[in-house]
Amino acid sequence: MKLKLFFIITMVSIFTISALGQSAFGYGGPPANNSANNYAVEITSDQESYTLGESVMFTGSVNKYDEDRSLRISVFDSSNNLIITKKTPVDTYGKFSYTVELNEKFSAGNYIVKSQYGNSKSTVNTSSLMITTGNTSTMTSNISEIPVWIK
């Protein structure tokens, strides 16, 4: 009986190890995808909402400065069409600023801003901004209500 139980446990162990391969022992396979050592960008704009004709100032920093890397800031419309892209210089302290004029390339709507520092081992930062036409005066009325001056 004990021999039979030992044989069953041995066979189950062999099948488990062969099915899992070397990962059963903690060896083999690629390392876990970890962005902890990636070059990352922190970027902000001076406002969340803008009017056509205004300027958007982006400022921020990178977590690790590398003179061989370049920072690319790209703006996409809500349909994911590229509107503008620009390589932006980063100073030796890892700081940068970039100004975008909201000219005829832009229209009212929501935009996605993507920034990436280098092409390898870099994390893409995504943020958004909203652009309005500027003549956003709205007039609301409630037809079911009798105006005070008629009462």
What does this structure look like?
The chain is mostly beta strands and 151 residues long. The protein has one helix at residues 2-20; strands at residues 41-45, 49-51, 55-62, 71-77, 82-88, 95-101, 109-117, 125-132. The chain has a domain at 41-132: Macroglobulin (MG2) domain (Immunoglobulin-like, Sandwich). It contains 1 helix and 8 strands. The protein is elongated and about 95 Å long.
Helices and strands in order:
Blueprint: H1 2-20, E1 41-45, E2 49-51, E3 55-62, E4 71-77, E5 82-88, E6 95-101, E7 109-117, E8 125-132
Parallel strand pairs: 2-8
Antiparallel strand pairs: 1-3, 3-6, 4-5, 4-7, 7-8
List keywords for this structure.
single chain; 151 residues; mainly beta; Immunoglobulin-like; three-stranded antiparallel sheet; 13% helix; elongated
**Spatial strand order of the main sheet:** 2-8-7-4-5
- Radius of gyration from the alpha-carbon trace, in angstroms: 29 Å
DSSP helix fraction: 10-25%
Largest sheet: 5 strands, mixed
The fraction of residues assigned to DSSP E strands is: 35-45%
N-to-C CA distance: 100 Å
Query: Low-confidence parts lasting 5 or more residues at pLDDT below 50?
Result: 26-33, 136-143
CATH topology of the domain at 41-132: Immunoglobulin-like
CATH superfamily of the domain at 41-132: Macroglobulin (MG2) domain
